[in-house]
UniProtKB/TrEMBL annotation:
One of its GO terms (cellular component) is nucleus. Residues 2-126 form the Bet v I/Major latex protein domain. Pfam families: Bet_v_1 (PF00407). This is Pathogenesis-related protein STH-2. SUPFAM superfamilies: Bet v1-like (SSF55961). One of its GO terms (biological process) is defense response. It comes from the Eukaryota. One of its GO terms (molecular function) is signaling receptor activity. PANTHER family: MAJOR ALLERGEN MAL D 1-LIKE (PTHR31213:SF157), OS08G0374000 PROTEIN-RELATED (PTHR31213). Gene3D superfamilies: 3.30.530.20. Belongs to the BetVI family.
Amino acid sequence: MGIKSFSHELKSKISASRFFKALITESPEHAPKFNKSAKSVELVEGHGVTPGCVIQTNFHDGLPFKYAKHRLDEIDTVNYVCKYTLIEGDILGDKLEKISYELKLEESADGGCVIKSKTDLHLKAGAELTDEEIKAGKDVALSIFSGCEEYLTANPHVCA
């Protein structure tokens, strides 16, 4: 089993606190409003968005994927750090065992934040990913971050 990794570092005009709430701690409420693929997001295991909980994203009909389950591994709401793992769903296909994510938001002097994310794709034995498949994964992550920023910009009262 091999691991393919990639990282992003993005600048946002949204504060780390608001971005973290919308993207992580209040994701069941807000993610369907900024992730255009998500029909719903729900807590399916655990009590609240805490370590060990499992959050399921259900995708709109007609998309190639039906759902994805993420387990929250670690969360630090003071320093805006979260580690979580995609543990189940047709996104994994026949090539991926799981996908691990680490997200860190840092406040910036202008009132916005810097979004630092790392993704580890854990490949099944003998599996390989093409550059196109890796790029598609990166594009999805970037679209979620930009969608969240657009949503929060258009709704300044949300997560304030």
